[in-house]
Design a protein that fits this description.
The complex is a heterodimer of chains A (325) and B (174).
Chain A: H1 6-43, H2 59-69, H3 80-96, H4 115-136, H5 140-171, H6 176-182, H7 193-206, H8 218-221, H9 231-256, H10 267-288, H11 294-323
Helix pairs in contact in A: 1-9, 1-10, 2-9, 3-4, 3-9, 4-5, 5-6, 5-7, 5-11, 7-9, 7-11, 9-10
Chain B: H1 2-21, H2 25-45, H3 49-74, H4 89-111, H5 126-133, H6 138-158, H7 168-171
Helix pairs in contact in B: 1-2, 2-3
Classes of the chains: A mainly alpha (325), B mainly alpha (174).
Chain lengths: 325, 174
């Protein structure tokens, strides 16, 4: 057993962790598609999908079978290489961001000191998935959806970064483990309430969820940038959106709600509970809010949220300097 | 570290060749994005992940999106059938000579003395960068900020929709 060194064991353990987290995220993202429809049914006083299996629990398997066996059609007028690239980009860029999230004290993929910046960089790359997918489809509705999506995401990413800087200033680090450790006494949602609100809004906008789903508005754009996609390529866009939802929820929990910390229960339970709470919030928002007009969304971002985050950052900096911490 | 450096450097060079040799404008812009990401990876390999992350956030994530945006709005067709004017010597001889001079200078500078340098990937953290920027280079940072503010004011002035209130009765909205 000379080859079995502690280093090899650590490497294998890290690889195992990464694999489990990857699978868990994808499975949770896929399961959310059905959970969301059931919850929407509950909140809107109707049944939702309840035919497959007991209480509709097997709906997910039916949906997956359908999406796997659908014809994967590439339109002849599409730009082939870019058409193939876009869904992979949409899926991978959000999935990769999970690398930085510390699930529990012992679990997590990477312990990077630029953690938050890594997330912002991948969120920046995620814009191209929509933009390239919409253009490569060779369809005017897709292109219009892609242009809307990129303008919206770009505007909201500006203050998404700014809204997180208050947290970074208080924790003194970009590393998410340090940020969780800094919330030992007080969750950042209390001193950084403005940061939390603006990050929540920006997170919803960046994942194109209701009420910020102008890029895929069914009424006027016939589903926007992924109108030409079918089969597994559409599935990747679709699951990618839910993965984004899980990611933003997990980030909110880690940055503002103390991550895995909590009394009595083990850390993993706390993390899962908090993350599910924000996932439910995402779905409840979709169930209750209509879609605002596009120009309102843009001016809200630039005229309300951006100044708010700047004020928050200035105030945080001033308080930190005065208290000398 | 060293392997990562050379691999991403190779990708950057190949993507840039693809950028200038392709005929479709959108493909060219995508190549440029790949090239920028490869350069960011070079930063990572050199032990400057902060610079690398900022490169992706600012260049690939923000500026290039606007490029892609404009290229898509213009809806340019691939220019395959146009006469390749740029293949004539008159077009590339002068710039190539100047670039050659620069290359010679660069090679001479690199080969001068510091041959023993290796890529060790010594980590430069965000804290180091912040302390350097707002310590010895404070005035430069503030000057750059003022320059950017001036550019912002100019852009918002040029891009305003309504004419000033005084001559609205003559001009109206554009």
């Amino acid at each position: 057993m000379s080859w079995w060194t502690p280093q090899l064991a650590a490497t294998l353990w890290a690889m195992f962790q990464a694999l489990v987290i990857l699978l868990a995220v994808v499975v949770v993202g896929a399961a959310l598609t059905v959970v969301e429809r059931r919850l929407l049914g509950l909140w809107q006083d109707r049944y939702g999908p309840n035919r497959v299996g007991p209480f509709g629990t097997l709906q997910l398997i039916a949906d997956m079978l359908k999406i796997f066996f659908k014809e994967d059609w590439t339109p002849p007028f599409a730009s082939r290489a870019l058409f193939m690239l876009a869904p992979n980009l949409a899926f991978a860029s959000l999935l990769l961001s999970f690398v930085i999230i510390p699930i529990t004290p012992g679990w997590g993929v990477a312990d990077m000191h630029i953690g938050l910046l890594f997330f912002l960089a991948l969120a920046g790359i995620n814009v191209y998935a929509v933009l390239i997918g919409g253009w490569a489809s060779g369809n005017k509705y897709a292109l219009l959806g892609a242009l809307r999506a990129s303008a919206q995401t770009l505007s909201y990413e500006v203050f998404m970064g700014l809204s997180l800087m208050g947290v970074v200033a208080m924790a003194g680090s970009f590393n998410l483990r340090d940020i969780v450790a800094a919330q030992e006494g007080l969750w950042f949602v209390i001193p950084q309430f403005l940061g939390f609100v603006t990050f929540l809004i920006a997170g919803i906008a960046v994942t194109h969820r209701h009420p910020f789903d102008q890029p895929e508005a069914e009424q006027e754009l016939a589903d926007g940038y992924h109108v030409e996609y079918s089969g597994m390529k559409f599935g990747m866009f679709f699951i990618g959106e839910y993965v984004g939802m899980v990611l933003v929820s997990a980030l909110i929990v880690t940055l503002f709600f103390g991550g895995w910390q909590g009394p009595w229960l083990p850390p993993i339970v706390w993390f899962a509970l908090k993350t599910s709470f924000f996932l439910m919030l995402f779905i409840l928002l979709r169930a209750s809010l209509p879609r605002p007009r596009y120009d309102r969304v843009m001016s809200f971002g630039w005229r309300v949220c951006l100044p708010l985050t700047l004020v928050n950052l200035l105030a945080t900096g001033a308080v930190l300097l005065l208290t000398g911490s | 570290m060293e392997l990562g450096f050379y691999l991403s450097g190779l990708v950057a060079v190949l993507a840039t060749v693809g950028l200038i040799s392709g005929s479709s404008p959108v493909h060219a812009v995508v190549y440029l994005i790949v090239s920028l990401i490869a350069v960011a990876l070079v930063f990572f390999a050199l032990g400057a992940p902060f610079a690398g992350a900022l490169e992706i956030i600012v260049y690939a994530g923000a500026i290039m999106v606007l490029f892609v945006f404009v290229v898509m709005m213009l809806n340019l067709r691939p220019e395959a059938k146009r006469d390749p004017l740029w293949l004539r010597p008159g077009y590339w001889l002068g710039p190539s000579l100047l670039a050659l001079v620069l290359l010679v200078a660069l090679v001479a500078l690199i080969s001068d003395g510091q041959a023993g340098m290796t890529i060790d990937g010594e980590l430069i953290t965000a804290r180091d960068i912040g302390l350097t920027l707002f310590g010895p280079w404070l005035i430069v940072v503030e000057l750059a900020a003022i320059l950017l503010l001036a550019a912002l004011v100019t852009a918002s002035h040029v891009g305003r929709r309504n004419k000033p209130r005084g001559n609205r009765n003559r001009g109206g909205t554009r």
